[in-house]
Design brief:
This protein has about 425 residues and is an alpha/beta fold. The protein folds into two domains: about 5-155, Spore Coat Polysaccharide Biosynthesis Protein SpsA, Chain A, CATH 3.90.550; about 170-370, 3 Solenoid (UDP N-Acetylglucosamine Acyltransferase, domain 1), CATH 2.160.10. Helix content is about 20%, strand content about 30%. The strands form eight sheets. A ten-stranded parallel β-sheet has the order 11-14-17-20-23-26-29-34-37-39. The chain has an eight-stranded parallel β-sheet with strand order 13-16-19-22-25-28-31-36, with no helix packed on it. A six-stranded mixed β-sheet has the order 4-1-5-8-7-9.
Length: about 425
């Protein structure tokens, strides 16, 4: 098998907004890790095996190089196996040096799951080519197809990540990883401790129940679990996260690094560095980084009719085909006290919702206070981001700043806001038509 692996973004990145304005689709979490880390593990790259490179949107090349430390958007006339970055990969497709180039698909879909490319084809696969669906189909049209459904599930929409998360955590669990390296105080209870991992430096304080009878519980390093918490597997809680007293972390939940959480969270993914510290409910949702959800906020994840939920991705409603879908909230966004989010709500990038009932779709850089819907100035938004990140000892690097400032242009081009009027207001806001 080739030792050169290239993880690529395709045109499907648009369906994963607002979560991927400032990250590659392969940096989204599902299961024990993000999708890129899963691929790296399968290739053996972390043990000195195959090299893993990235093809992504050119606008994010510097930022993704900074966050992943990998070669980004380089073109080499060398044989390569290209893997779709929004794939939940369980194994790599088999390749042979004499098989020539071919395309891997899943369940008869037109989406390209992988490309086994000879040297000539590999040299022609640029970021601009793989991200343009029409150009890619034309280039690959002469090649034979193979069904690789046994290797990968392509995740098309944010709710696909949420629904795949629990099963992925269970399949990722290695019984050999069961260990209690941290401190579990007297008065706490571990149910099925053979399915529990608690990392070094973590502490579980009294009157906490960790229930791994229905799925494994992975707690990373330097996590604080305050008294009276309930954790029900499968669950992943990454390093540095704090669970406030009385938190209920239900099955199918992933909490990324350095979050502060409280209240009840069920079947949700929080990318990392976000706060939901107080009482309230978050269910079947995907929340980005640097988000703050204030006290007593709740979201609906089930319609009163028990019908299929429609979700306004980029402002246009999509039938999810699912009975349970919560909300999607982009990076740097905020919710004020007592905000309720309707079923299938979408909150864009760097937005604030202060009124009691959020609209179902909140565009990026929107400030919603009462009946006013105003546009938040991107420069002021960046200034707030600097303060938020500094509280976690993180800085706004030039790559982060460049990506942040370009989000507004993307949002104006991709988000359809006709259902929400934009009005000129105060608070240092501006209006963009």
């Amino acid at each position: 098998m080739t030792t050169r692996i290239v993880v690529f973004e395709d045109a499907g990145w648009i369906r994963l907004l607002p979560l991927v304005y400032m990250r590659g689709v392969f940096e989204l979490r599902c299961g024990r890790s993000d999708l890129l880390s899963r691929i790296v593990g399968l290739t053996g790259a972390s043990e000195g095996g195959a090299t893993v490179e990235i093809l992504c949107r050119p606008q994010l090349a510097d930022l993704i190089h900074e966050t992943t430390g990998r070669a980004v958007n380089t073109s080499h006339p060398e044989p390569a196996l290209l893997l779709n970055g929004r794939g939940l990969w369980t194994k790599l497709p088999e390749t042979a040096s004499d098989a020539g180039s071919w395309v891997g698909t899943v369940d008869g879909s037109d989406d390209v799951a992988c490309i086994a490319a000879d040297a000539e084809l590999a040299g022609s696969l640029t970021p601009e080519t793989v991200i343009d669906q029409a150009r890619l189909r034309t280039l690959l049209a002469p090649l034979p197809r193979r069904d690789i459904s046994d290797c990968v599930q392509l995740l098309d929409w944010p709710w696909n990540f949420v629904h795949a998360n629990g099963p992925a955590m269970e399949s990722d669990w290695d019984p050999a990883s069961a260990a209690i390296a941290g401190q579990v105080d007297e008065g706490s209870y571990l149910l099925a401790p053979e399915h529990v991992h608690i990392g070094a430096g973590s502490r579980v304080k009294p009157c906490t129940v960790i229930d791994a009878e229905s799925g494994p519980v992975w707690i990373g390093e330097n996590v604080t679990v305050n008294p009276h918490c309930y954790i029900e597997g499968p669950v992943v809680i990454e390093s540095g996260t704090i669970l406030q007293p009385g938190a209920k972390i239900r099955e199918g939940t992933t909490l990324g690094p350095r979050c502060k959480v409280g209240g009840e969270i069920e079947a949700s993914i929080v990318q990392g560095f976000s706060n939901k510290q107080h009482d309230g409910f978050l269910g079947h949702s995907y929340v980005g980084e640097w988000v703050n959800i204030a006290a007593d906020c709740i979201n609906s994840d089930l319609k009163n009719t028990y019908g299929m939920i429609r979700v306004p991705i980029n402002g246009r409603e999509v039938n999810s085909g699912e009975m349970f879908v919560g909300m999607v909230m982009g990076d740097y966004s905020k919710a004020g006290i007592n905000v309720s989010f309707p079923t299938g709500a979408v909150v864009g990038f760097s937005s604030s919702v202060i009124r009691p009932l959020s609209p179902k779709f909140v565009p990026s850089f929107a400030w919603i206070d009462g009946d006013d819907v105003q546009r938040f100035d991107v420069v002021r938004g960046l200034a707030v981001a600097r303060k938020v990140m500094a509280r976690r000892q993180r800085e706004v690097t030039p790559a982060v700043e460049h990506a942040f400032l370009q989000v507004r242009e993307w949002a104006l081009a991709l988000e359809h806001e006709q259902q929400i009027p934009l009005e000129t207001g105060q608070h240092g806001l501006d209006t963009i038509g």
